[in-house]
Amino acid sequence: MSFTRLHQQPRDFYNQLGHGARMAQPPSKRPPAKGPASGKAPARPAKPPKLRWDAKPVRKPRPDAAPSKGALERADGEERIAKLLARAGVASRREIERMIADKRITLNGVAVETPATLLKSLHGVAVDGKAVGQPAPTQLYLFHKPEGCLTAERDFSGRKTIYDILPKDLPRLMPIGRLDLNTEGLLLLTNDGEFKRQMEMPSTGVERTYRARCFGDISQTELEELIHGIEIEGVRYGKIDANLERRTGRNGWLEMTLTEGKNREVRRVLEHFGLEVSRLIRTRYGPFVLGDMAPGDVGEVRRVDLIEFRNTLKA
Question: Which residues pair with 107 in a beta bridge?
């Protein structure tokens, strides 16, 4: 897969997409039956027959029932305003819901009451008094995030963010997932809030690969146990494919591939094993790789390659 360079073209980019038994119960201890002197227990009344539900009963729709919202969307070509705004790159669905609750989004001058409002287009929709244009085609950019900057639009304490580094001529972009302050490497950026949400969902199964430089002792056998997942302080992390690349004394490089991407997942797992992480780099997200991109480099994925990749997503 190749992509059009916006700035410096990386030289190393992958071409392929993606690397009923029941427990036995002890017999119940019942008191002996009290019957006549003959010793025979009195006859018990017959139990009513049990009802068996092999399948849920089929409910017939009422003829006067209103169509569901999903049916309306399919029949009339309407979609929820939150989905349309996310696709237009205004913000993520969750952020749009907050904006609607704060009365920042209007339709023909009237504040929108619910993110489930159905519309065919964004005509007449405004955010903070500014009209919203129609959604642009989905774009995807690769960015080599340097260490020491936040994956955020702004920081009230004055720390540097990715938007202080990104070229000013780029369209409005949202990060897909996050890299913390001291993590560097590949960060994907898009103008499509729906695509962002799809890429971040664990159910989609998009892999992320990290390389970590650590100090401490750990064996390949211990790392291989992570394929079954691990629970740390009440938080369950899914399967992780981890490998010890090389080691010099007590210093070593590890490679870890996972699909969930929970907050500080790699650092928490390695610290659980008593390792001290001195450097963490994300090298891959799905089929998109960092290659030899220099810190601060940006590149755009070709639309044909983006469409091909989206067709492979599970959800």
Answer: 110, 125
